[in-house]
Amino acid sequence: MLSVESLASQMAAAEPWPENASLYQLPTDDQILLSDAASCLAVQTFLKMCNLPVLVVFRSSAESMSPSGKVPFIHAGNHVVSELGPIVQFVRAKGHSLSESLNEQEKAEMKAYMELVNNSLLTAELYILWCDKNVSSLISRPRYGSPFPFPLDTILARQKQREIVRRMKAVGWAEKTREQVHDEVDQSCRALSQRLGNHKYFFGSPTELDALVFGHLYSLLTTDIPGYSIPEIIRNYPNLTNFCKNIDTHFFLQSNTSKV
Amino acid sequence: MSCSEDVSRGVPQGSVLRPLLFIIFINDLDNGVKSKLSKFADDTKLGGKVDIREGGDQIQESINTCVDLAKYWQMEFNLSKCKVLEMGRNNENRDYRMQGVVLERVTQEKDLGVVIDMGDCSTDVTSYLGPGARLDGLEITFQVTEMSALTGSYNTMVGNNEGSMAIGGKLSNMLGRAERLVAQFSYGTKETSYGLSFFKPQTGCFERNITFGLFDVKGQFPWSSVREVDRGVSFDFNFPVWRTRHTVRWEAVWRELSCLSRTASFPVREESGHSLKSSLAHTMVVDCRDSTILPSKGVYLKVNQELAGYTGGDIRFLKEEMELQLNRSLPWGCVSVFCSILFFLGGPTTIRGFNMYSIGPYAESDFLGGDAYWAAGLHLYTPLPFGPGRPGFGDIFRTHLFINAGNLCSLDYGEGLRGHVSRLGSCLRWAYGAGVVLRLGNIARLELNYCFPTGVQLGDR
Predict the structure, then answer these.
(1) How would residue B424 be classed by pLDDT, with cut points 50, 70 and 90?
(2) Smallest CA–CA separation between A149 and chain B, in Å?
(3) Residue B258 has pLDDT above 80, yes or no
(4) Do A80 and B274 touch (CB under 8 A)?
(5) Which parts of the sequence belong to the Reverse transcriptase domain (chain B) (predicted)?
(6) Model confidence over B200-248: pLDDT tens digits?
(7) Interchain proximity A152–B274, CB inside 8 Å
């Protein structure tokens, strides 16, 4: 299997970035949920930072089409690659990299901060969406099941919820309270804010970490979730909100890409 | 030449003349007999209603007529084999005489293999005859041994792609009205499937029945890089109309398609996901063939239509399917012509010589299937040349010569009917070949064919 994948990446390197590459994600108006919106925005930002053209395709079945079962994924030439990490590797194989100029220590630091974002911000998003009874019954389950006919909508949404709750239990988040979740978000924001300082980007020039942090912070800032005050927590760190504003104006001229 | 021999009674056993002689002698036995006389092979019964004295007299008179006729033909009745069986409670129990001898009276006699038992009339007549018995009628009780209520089955299968083991359980006659509950569990090397069905026939009309089913079937199709999971419920209503059988079926299936590998082609990937089909289907079958496995004569017609989407679910389609088979016997074998028009094709019972599902539209080495399909074939089945092992073992073998043709394509709905027909006829696939067919019991056939695929289109394997 390994040899097949290395062969595939060699083949990928041989071909330039295809013009008709597409990014598949869930429809934003009535279906996508906060965590998926954040991941999709991160990948979209990363590709814009690399200056790689991509056509965004909205598909309600994008999750089952994805090889890893997660959105977003890109379809470039004969290759289908899902999620930010593998996409960054795939793009590097094509000769585009944002973190090439970093030294080893900075690379390690970048990876650590990316882990921090995935382990705290992404997990907090999933907790709010699926472990909070109020949010999951009012927002997450109806939106998740919206493309399916009755009774599949309920069955699939419940299935998804069971799966996420099991994962939350495994990482010890299932029993957390709202205040503890607020605390977690606050701690990671403080860590990010301290690392960022008053710079424009985390490591001088845009990297995949900037794309990931922007994806999550922007989505959290623009989403109003009943019972939670995440946007207020983030606004306590003005350098982070400025960071989001800066990337938004720099890479997205019309900032209407993401809601919920 | 055989030697001549005198026969005084009956006809010589085993002689070729026996049936003919018997027919000649027995033919006019009922001349002048007033009672009811029923002849079946060498069993003859004479009967009548004996509610008044004259009834018995008439029977005795008829016996005398028969005896006279036998005398005329210089024959005798074998008196030890002639019995009197009396039925009903108002019987006068008189003696009947034949050739001067009083015939033995019995309460039980075997007729054409069936034991007719009148019970011990002398002791307790009324209790035996039952509450439904009338003056001129009897209440007959059939005593049968029922199959065991719970049966199990076990079998293993090796298919195109995987091997599986199936365990089944059957509760026959569950509620006492021929209801059947069947459960099946199949454990395969790759997938596990379940099924449960409940069958209930209408009392007094077994052909009119309903079946309710639940299933969870998983399968892998490497030629399309697809894994399919179907979970569903179905409801069938079967009923006969004249010589046709009809089935109306409602089915709700939750289908989950996913890619088997990361290298699956993108059109297959695009089809991945969950869908719900709710459909109504009607099937009509006319089957006048003499055998379903290796028919030698008769016609088979099956027309099936399925309408999905109007009873719920997110899949909408109309599917039409027709299958026609004509079989004829010829002096040296039998010929079979078939023609069918249906939807997603392939597989060993349609176009031989091409891989399973491997003709038609494809993308990056994965076969996609099409919207329309037709296939026709001409088959010639003959007994094995020089007839080794016949009769007996050789009978289950047939040599098989065939020509098959067919096509499958995707339809463009802007084209109209004429466009569809020309498209289906345009790039024909056909194959011919020969082989041996082995009939396994009356349930399956095993074919070994050598094929020459002739009309092949780009991409077929």
Answers:
(1) low
(2) 6
(3) yes
(4) no
(5) 1-103
(6) 998 888 889 999 999 998 888 777 788 888 899 999 999 999 889 999 9
(7) yes
**What's the topology of domain A21-94?**
Glutaredoxin (3.40.30)
Rounded to the nearest angstrom, the minimum Cα separation between B255 and chain A is 10
> Residue B326: pLDDT band by 50, 70, 90 thresholds?
confident
Q: Which of B254, B273, B364 lies closest to A64 in CB terms?
A: B273
Average pLDDT of B78-95?
75
The list of chain A residues with pLDDT below 70 reads 1-14, 253-260
Q: Do residues A22 and A74 make contact, with C-beta atoms less than 8 angstroms apart?
A: yes
- Mean confidence (pLDDT) of chain B: 74
> What pLDDT was estimated at residue B370?
55
Tell me the residue length of chain A: 260
SS3 for A24? strand
Name the residue of chain A whose CA is nearest to B260's CA. Answer: A67
Tokens of B435: 């082989």
Smallest CA–CA separation between A14 and chain B, in Å? 18
Partner residue facing B272 (CB), from A61, A150, A155 = A61
ipTM of the complex: 0.80
* Interface test mutation site (partner B, options A7, A64, A154, max chain B beta carbons within 10 A): A64
Q: Where exactly are the structural domains of chain A?
A: 21-94, 104-252
**HEC sequence for chain B:** CCCCCCCCCCCCCCCCCHHHHHHHHHCCCCCCCCCEEEEECCEEEEECCCCCHHHHHHHHHHHHHHHHHHHHCCCCCCHHHCEEECCCCCCCCCCCEECCEECEEECEEEECCEEEECCCCCCCHHHHHCCCCECCECCCCCCCCCCCCEEEEEEEEECCCCEEEEEEEEEECCCCCCCEEEEEEEEECCCEEEEEEEEEEECCEEEEEEEEEEEEEEEEECCCCEEEEEEEEEEEEEEEECCEEEEEEEEEEEEEEEECCCCCCHHHHHCCEEEEEEEEEEEEEEECCCCCCCCCCEEEEEEEEEEEEEEEECCCEEEEEEEEEEEEEECCEEEEEEEEEECCCCCCCCCCCCCCCCCCCEECCEECCCCEEEEEEEEEEECCCCCCCCCCHHHHEEEEEEEEEEEEECCCCCCHHHHHHHHHHHCCEEEEEEEEEEEECCCEEEEEEEEEEEECCCCCC
CATH no. of A104-252: 1.20.1050
Q: Say if residue A6 is exposed, middle or buried (CB neighbours under 10 Å; 0-12, 13-18, 19+).
A: exposed
Question: Taking the C-alpha atoms of A240, A244, A245 and A248 in order, what is their torsion angle to the nearest 10 degrees?
Answer: 170
Query: Are residues B437 and B397 in contact, defined by beta-carbon separation less than 8 angstroms?
Result: yes
Q: What is the pTM of this model?
A: 0.66
